[in-house]
Amino acid sequence: MTSTDVTLIEVDPADVKASDVKTMPVRDNEEAWKVAEVRDIVKTLTADVARLLEELSENEHELDDLLHTSEGAGDDQADAGSTALEREQEMSIVNNTREMLQASVDALRRVKAGTFGTCQSCGGAVGKARLQAFPRATLCVTCKQREERR
Question: pTM for the full model?
């Protein structure tokens, strides 16, 4: 998968209306979502997508260079091991960037679909504070803790 394999979605913060945020779930101890809060999250996610696309492009280019670097006949085992480690690290960075990019795009899709803020496990509210700190969150704290214990 390359950076062009991600199907992007555009959500204009100005398109977020009061009727959209009224249906967004909140936890019992939280105030209802405000339009400005959701618009800020959309701006953050949109900026994340742009930044991650750029990072992914750069990382994929670096990985491509590493993968096409031929190991010379004079390389010893230490050099070959070092090259292999560098490739593994770069692949890990590329994969992590792809996952974060996909999570950001998915969060924008949930905003547009009106399902943003709903826990994908229990169907309850993820929580405003959690989403404001980490807008890609898909699970409430309880479900996330349960997942991490497994």
Answer: 0.80
